[in-house]
């Protein structure tokens, strides 16, 4: 029924089915089965966690690891102690039925109910297709808070048996958190390395390759649980560590088997968990207390909202991509509770916790409220708030190259700045992985294969499978995968060169991949390098010429401020003869007073005062006398400047402006003479500077 499934999440429908089945069994007169904690923790939970850890989006997870850890550790501790303290206050005030519940029992209850459940989060968030950031924040928190939940649960369970709790016990409990979390990760890493090393020698028995992945992962979970370490952390660590090396060693058929078997196994476990939750609700013993149940529900919501708001305010001080109010609302609203809390509560001993039935009733109420109310309303709220959805896009060679390039670039920037951020340590880890780890854990030539070629082979194989599934081609050309062929018949390595450490075939293959997948760029006519440029012998001469032109233009701009020439004082005949005798070129006999000066202008911009070429001013000669009296009365006549011939320099080529009369005119204009003192207005320029 598509209309129902689009509104109600699958987990809600499965719980309803469980309630119906439990009611039917009880109506017949039989006793319905109850979800036992041993079955849940040993058989139903590991497949879901292994599927999540093996296919974990590692890049988003590592980039947001700090935020996830703060939400998982600090947020869970805040929820547990805030909820436990308030519930203890409610029990003291609430009446006769709650007075006997002590502080430790309330803190234990708070630690059980405070953790976000990964099964419930996966069931709801995968259906609403939220963006990668919010999904990894909520889901990562639900995975990593297992260590805090396990520590607090066992701690308060042990403290309940003590007659007196000392400060040393509290300090040891605090240290046990690091032992539980880091110990679980350590166990998972060891089993992941063993699984990767084992897969190196399975080239002749491809059938049992998937078995090693499941076997070593399950052994990691059991080993961690055996020592009261975090089994969920061990499963995630083993899946993350083994995946890149196992996929390089195993055949494609084994990879497909692992992928679909894990998906099917986790889906079956999830279905059984929610159905058994419904059946156990009908079959279990319940003790309903309105005050306790409603207070638990209310304080759970308040603690979650306050914790997310406070931690996000602190986290945003250090994040580059800030968490918006919409993101904070989805994170707070997505804190769903599930079967882990129910199973942990079911494990409690009646001898020390005689109020277990009331705890179970309150926990089931909180689970139903979060799964039904929050799970059903989160999709319309995401649409209403216009929260960014997940964009399904296939990775391309272009994206892979630019991602690697930006990683190298950011690593280099961190090295230059002297700031060792996560890019620096990521680069160190990648170098160590390529230099040592890959050679030990990956068989054959694949251990030395460049990352680009490995990614291209993987993408090609994926496209071929999609074409076969869609019926695009009849079959894959070769039934045996290229990976298995390389492992069965290892090639003889060619002699390696010093720089770069790639064979000719690999270089040619990389060039072919780039030619086929990158954008076709325009072919340039000339290729050059800044280190091999030939020096231009005329470059110095051109620079000198440009400097001289600049000086001449500056002089012209200065002369534009002195367009009015002061009247020439009439000298006595004796002074005139003396001046002409000392400098005959500068003091030639004046031309006819009827002639007027001509100012040549640049026709490109005749409106600009800077375009007037005073260097080419000359007095009108007899050949330029106007033919009409109206033209004589016009004053200065504007003539367009004749363009110079191509290839000539208008500064250094001698022309009409170099005649003695023009030089005299230039000298006269550049030195207008002393300013008259009585009338300061006359000494001011006709065109003031700056206008």
From TrEMBL:
One of its GO terms (molecular function) is calmodulin binding. GO terms for biological process: regulation of intracellular pH; sodium ion import across plasma membrane. Residues 479-566 form the Sodium/hydrogen exchanger regulatory region domain. Residues 654-664 have a biased composition (Polar residues). InterPro entries: Cation/H_exchanger_CPA1 (IPR018422), Cation/H_exchanger_TM (IPR006153), NaH_exchanger (IPR004709), NHE-1-like (IPR001970), NHE_CaM-bd (IPR032103). It is found in: Basolateral cell membrane. This is Sodium/hydrogen exchanger. Residues 8-382 form the Cation/H+ exchanger transmembrane domain.
């Amino acid at each position: 029924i598509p209309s129902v499934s689009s509104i109600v999440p699958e987990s809600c429908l499965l719980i309803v089915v469980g309630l119906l089945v439990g009611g039917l069994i009880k109506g017949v007169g039989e006793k319905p089965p109850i979800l036992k904690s041993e079955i849940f923790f040993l058989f139903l939970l590991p497949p879901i966690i292994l599927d999540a850890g093996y296919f974990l989006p590692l890049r988003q997870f590592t980039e947001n690891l700090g935020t996830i850890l703060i939400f998982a550790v600090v947020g869970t501790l805040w929820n547990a102690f805030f909820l436990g303290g308030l519930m203890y206050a409610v029990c003291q005030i609430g009446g006769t039925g709650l007075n006997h519940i002590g502080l430790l029992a309330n803190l234990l209850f708070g630690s059980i109910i405070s953790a976000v459940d990964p099964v419930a989060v996966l069931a709801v968030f995968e259906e609403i297709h939220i963006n990668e950031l919010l999904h990894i924040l909520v889901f990562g928190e639900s995975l990593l808070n297992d260590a805090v939940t396990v520590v607090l649960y066992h701690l308060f369970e042990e403290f309940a048996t003590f007659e007196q709790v000392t400060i040393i016990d509290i300090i040891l409990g605090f240290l046990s958190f690091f032992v539980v979390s880091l110990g679980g990760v350590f166990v998972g890493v060891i089993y992941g390395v063993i699984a990767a090393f084992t897969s190196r020698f399975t080239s002749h028995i491809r059938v049992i390759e998937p078995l090693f992945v499941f076997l070593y992962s399950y052994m990691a979970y059991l080993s961690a649980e055996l020592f009261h370490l975090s089994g969920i952390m061990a499963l995630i660590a083993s899946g993350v560590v083994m995946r890149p090396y196992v996929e390089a060693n195993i055949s494609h058929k084994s990879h497909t088997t692992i992928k679909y078997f894990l998906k099917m196994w986790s889906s079956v476990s999830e279905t059984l968990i929610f159905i058994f939750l419904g059946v156990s609700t009908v079959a279990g013993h319940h003790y309903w207390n309105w005050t306790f149940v409603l207070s638990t529900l209310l304080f759970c919501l308040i603690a979650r909202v306050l914790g997310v708001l406070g931690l996000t305010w602190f986290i945003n001080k250090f994040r580059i991509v800030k968490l918006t109010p919409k993101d904070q609302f989805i994170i707070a609203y997505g804190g769903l509770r599930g079967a882990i809390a129910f199973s942990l509560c079911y494990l409690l001993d009646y001898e020390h916790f005689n109020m277990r039935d009331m705890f179970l009733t309150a926990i089931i109420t909180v689970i139903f409220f979060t799964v039904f109310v929050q799970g059903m309303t989160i999709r319309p709220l995401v649409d209403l708030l216009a929260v960014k959805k997940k964009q399904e896009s296939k990775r391309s060679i272009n994206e892979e190259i630019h991602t690697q390039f930006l990683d190298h670039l950011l690593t280099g920037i961190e090295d230059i700045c002297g700031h060792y951020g996560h890019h620096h340590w990521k680069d160190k880890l990648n170098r160590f992985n390529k230099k040592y780890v890959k050679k030990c854990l990956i068989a054959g030539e694949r251990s030395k294969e460049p990352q680009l070629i490995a990614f291209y082979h993987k993408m090609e194989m994926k496209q071929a499978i999609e074409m076969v599934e869609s019926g695009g081609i009849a079959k894959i050309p070769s039934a045996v995968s290229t990976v298995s062929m390389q492992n069965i018949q290892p090639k003889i390595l060619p002699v390696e060169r010093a720089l770069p450490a790639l064979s000719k075939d690999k270089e040619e293959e990389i060039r072919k991949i780039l030619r086929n997948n990158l954008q076709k760029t325009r072919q340039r006519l000339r290729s050059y390098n800044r280190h091999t440029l030939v020096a231009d012998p005329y470059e110095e001469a051109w620079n000198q010429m440009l400097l001289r032109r600049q000086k001449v233009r500056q002089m012209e701009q200065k002369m534009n401020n002195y367009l009015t020439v002061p009247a020439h004082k009439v000298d006595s005949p004796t002074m005139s003869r003396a001046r002409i005798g000392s400098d005959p070129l500068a003091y030639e006999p004046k031309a006819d007073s009827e002639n007027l000066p001509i100012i040549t202008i640049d026709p490109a911009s005749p409106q600009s005062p800077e375009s007037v070429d005073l260097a080419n001013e000359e007095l009108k000669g007899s050949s330029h006398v106007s033919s009409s009296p109206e033209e004589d009365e016009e004053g200065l006549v504007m003539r367009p400047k004749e363009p110079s011939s191509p290839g000539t320099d208008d500064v250094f080529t001698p022309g009409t402006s170099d005649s003695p009369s023009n030089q005299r005119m230039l000298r006269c204009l550049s030195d207008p003479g002393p300013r008259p003192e009585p009338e300061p207005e006359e000494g001011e320029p006709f065109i003031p500077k700056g206008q």
